[in-house]
Amino acid sequence: MEVVAVRRGAVRSVVVAGLLVLGVSGLSGTEAGAAARRGPEADLAYHGRVSLSQGRLRVWVVPQNEGPAALPNATLRVRLSADLADRQELAQGCARAGQREVVCETGALPLHGRGRHIGLLLELKEPVPEVVVRIDTWWNGGASDRDLSNNQHAVLALDTGDSYAF
Length: 166
Fold this sequence. Notes:
- 14% of the residues lie in helices and 41% in strands.
- By secondary structure, the chain is mostly beta strands.
- The strands form 2 sheets. Strands 1, 2, 6, 7 and 10 form a 5-stranded antiparallel β-sheet that branches. Strands 4-5-3-8-9 form a 5-stranded antiparallel β-sheet, with no helix packed on it.
- The longest helix is centred in the first third of the chain and has 14 residues, at 8-21.
């Protein structure tokens, strides 16, 4: 499966266009944009662990939705403080989004449920003694999320092979 990187503004434009087609055409552009932003509300959370050993970074993430609405899909982002090797074999539903960045779809996130487990084995361009791994939401399925504290993580992984949980 191929994941296509789409900027947030493009997604917002598609949502606003969809609202206009669905009969919200009486709203101004600003009002339609505000209505699109209100959408459903969901509380995304990510739990998992990272480990670094000899230039190989393992990232395991379980996306979770505490509601109040289910989401058909969302996209999480993994950003690193070190460059990725040129060639990567990524898990299904994941794509490289830059020299230090990978994005992965979560799959359906039911109310008070979990999305698919995401496992990545990322090769770094060069072995490093440590790497900072930042995990956050790149696209939230069109929902608003009032609590970002449980879906924005920064983890320092030392090159020891030890697992660091978040």
